[in-house]
Design a protein that fits this description.
By secondary structure, the protein is an alpha+beta fold. The protein has a single domain, classed as Nucleotidyltransferase, domain 5. The protein has 7 helices and 4 strands; from the N terminus they run ααβββααβααα. The radius of gyration is 19 Å and the shape is elongated.
């Protein structure tokens, strides 16, 4: 038997093999030097994190998910556009208090689709006063301006409470 040699036997990073991380995209985001806003969605809620790069490992500054809305504002937590927007608004306010001024949007390996929950969260953070660059064509504006009647009043109440406090 001979020893395996050459590029044919190259083993890629584990997270690349599992399809969890696009390292070229991550490197571009890290090179920007700005804080990353990472948005992840699960079957039940939306998770927003603000992460800074450090050579020894990334540092998570802040984590907010839809359950914060349930505890603080009695919002019925679901993974929908309105919950994502309010979670983004809350995360943006909390990040501003932690000293974050601007960020880059990291949506990970999720496919970019118009009107998705990820862009609703981005819109919420942008509306909280943090600076970023994004196009409004991907944001679900029609859904955010016209929530269903059963949650419309609660949506407006929670939104005003987050903005005020």
């Amino acid at each position: 038997m001979t020893i395996a040699k050459g590029p044919k036997y190259l083993v890629h990073f584990r997270r690349r093999r599992e399809g969890k991380t696009n390292f070229a995209k991550r490197l571009a985001l890290v090179k920007s030097g700005k804080t990353r806003m990472v948005v992840r969605r699960s079957n039940k809620t939306v998770l927003i994190q603000f992460i800074e790069f450090e050579p020894k490992g990334d540092k998570t500054l802040l984590t907010v998910n839809g359950q914060h809305l349930v505890k603080s504002y009695k919002w019925p937590s679901k993974r929908n556009v309105w919950t994502a927007y309010l979670t983004g608004l809350l995360a943006g306010k909390m990040a501003h208090k932690k000293g974050v001024k601007e960020f880059v949007f990291d949506m990970g390996m999720y496919p970019s689709s118009k009107g998705s929950v990820l862009y609703a969260a981005l819109k919420g953070v942008a509306d909280s006063g943090l600076k970023t660059t994004f196009g409004n064509e991907m944001v679900p504006e029609k859904k955010l301006t016209n929530p269903p009647e059963k949650v419309k009043s609660l949506f407006e109440q929670v939104k005003s409470k987050i903005i005020a406090g």
